[in-house]
Design a protein that fits this description.
This protein is α+β, with helices and mostly antiparallel strands and 233 residues long. Helices cover 55% and strands 21% of the residues. It contains 4 helices and 8 strands. A 5-stranded antiparallel beta sheet has the order 3-2-7-1-8. Strands 4-5-6 form a 3-stranded antiparallel beta sheet, with no helix packed on it. A hairpin with a 2-residue loop joins strand 2 and strand 3. The radius of gyration is 53 Å and the shape is rod-shaped. The N and C termini lie far apart (157 Å). Keywords: Coiled coil.
């Protein structure tokens, strides 16, 4: 009986020990599985975090590259605009010079000045004292130029810087072309300024009237002038 009791106790002890060993193994296995799972989760998080950092770094590089290219394009556009403006300025300057030299037709607001020989000549006076002469035309032209006229024509013939006059009796020759009275001098510019400049007290108009010249001034919203003909000199 004592031997059987010992066997029962030994079997119970072995059973308990086996259970404890089995439980410990199971716990250890579960712990190992959890550690592995945690390791995989950490690896995934690390992988995704690294991917995110790489993308952010790449985006930063692309933004910097885009900024650099944008600045380069802006610099190019600014340079192109400056060149275009310079070209436009050159073209406009050339156009103004061609207008001044009569190489291009021109139109715009301005003033017409008509100079006529005196309608009445006293019998005791010399007729030469009552007709338009070269200096009279010079007076008007010079005053118009001083008042800012951009273009001038006499009886439709363009007047330029190297134009010349010659008076032969009642006829005036301009650049080799003869013109009889009346003489219509047209000027393109500010009509009010041109009119006021000629109409000053003791100015050009008063002087012409004193010389027995009939003078008419007329403002115009648009005056057209042809280009200077090569045959005019």
């Amino acid at each position: 009986m004592k031997l059987r009791g010992k066997h029962v106790i030994l079997a119970f002890v072995l059973l308990v020990t086996g259970f404890l060993v089995s439980y410990s193994y199971t716990q250890a296995d579960e712990s190992s599985q959890m550690v592995k799972l945690a390791d995989r989760t950490w690896e995934k998080e690390y992988y995704y975090r690294k991917q995110l950092l790489d993308l952010e770094s790449k985006n930063k590089e692309l933004r910097e590259e885009l900024q650099t290219k944008t600045e380069a394009v802006q610099t190019y556009e600014d340079g192109l605009a400056a060149n275009e403006q310079q070209i436009a300025d050159f073209v406009e300057r050339k156009k103004r010079l061609q207008m001044l030299t009569g190489q291009l037709p021109v139109k715009g607001p301005g003033l017409s000045v008509t100079l006529k020989d005196a309608a009445y000549i006293p019998s005791e006076e010399h007729a030469n004292n009552y007709i338009v002469h070269e200096p009279h035309i010079h007076q008007v032209v010079n005053e118009l130029k001083s008042a800012g006229a951009k273009a001038i024509a006499i009886n439709g013939q363009r007047y330029v810087s190297n134009s010349y006059f010659a008076c032969t009796g009642p006829v005036i020759t301009i650049d080799g072309v003869q013109h009889p009275a009346p003489f219509v001098i047209t000027a393109i510019g500010d009509p009010d300024v041109l009119f006021s400049s000629l109409s000053l007290k003791n100015g050009v108009v008063d002087q012409l009237v004193t010389d027995n010249i009939e003078v008419e001034l007329e403002k115009s919203a648009e005056i057209q002038m042809d280009a200077r003909l090569s045959s005019e000199g």
